[in-house]
Design brief:
30% of the residues lie in helices and 11% in strands. The chain is an alpha+beta fold. It has one domain.
Length: 157
């Protein structure tokens, strides 16, 4: 099946695999509900480590459109996200009564991490979609701060 990947026609999943680009998801790759309705987004996960080290490769290479905007868009986004997370960690650190910098020591730039920026592209539908149609299926994010922000049912309910 021929697909358009991040706006580049004729790049197939096999080619992406051969290039060690394993974090790309094409439109329709996942179901959005139990009936199997396909999602309507394409996305690519970019490692924080790769974004900060670019053009050096820490984990993997990315398609040309991603690498072409690594300096102008991806790296600045990752850096700003890190600043926001640092602010949140500082507040949590203080509110929890931990020694100064306790949480920050667990998230140093020197150590590799599983942190990622996820770039999601939703192309407008060619025909009107119901307003309640999900574009992305149910999922759980992971990470030190995200875990605390996930909506989870109360144990008492």
């Amino acid at each position: 099946m021929e697909a358009t990947h991040m706006g580049i026609p004729h790049i197939t999943p096999l080619l992406l695999k051969r290039l060690n680009i394993s974090r790309y998801k094409y439109v329709g790759a996942d179901a959005t509900d139990a009936s199997g309705a396909p999602d309507s987004v394409e996305s690519i996960n970019v490692s924080k480590d790769d974004a900060l080290a670019f053009p050096a490769m820490v984990h993997r290479r990315y398609p040309p459109p991603v690498e072409e905007c690594m300096d102008s868009a991806v790296r600045p986004f990752v850096r700003k996200s890190m600043e926001v997370n640092q602010t949140l960690m500082d507040v949590l650190n203080d509110r929890l009564g931990l020694p100064p910098g306790c949480l920050a020591k667990l998230h140093t730039l020197e150590e590799h991490s599983g942190s990622q920026a996820i770039c999601i592209k939703k192309t407008p539908a060619s025909t009107p979609e119901p307003p309640d149609r999900a574009a992305i299926g149910a999922h759980t994010d992971f990470g030190s701060l995200v875990r605390g922000r996930e909506c989870q049912p109360s144990l008492s309910s």
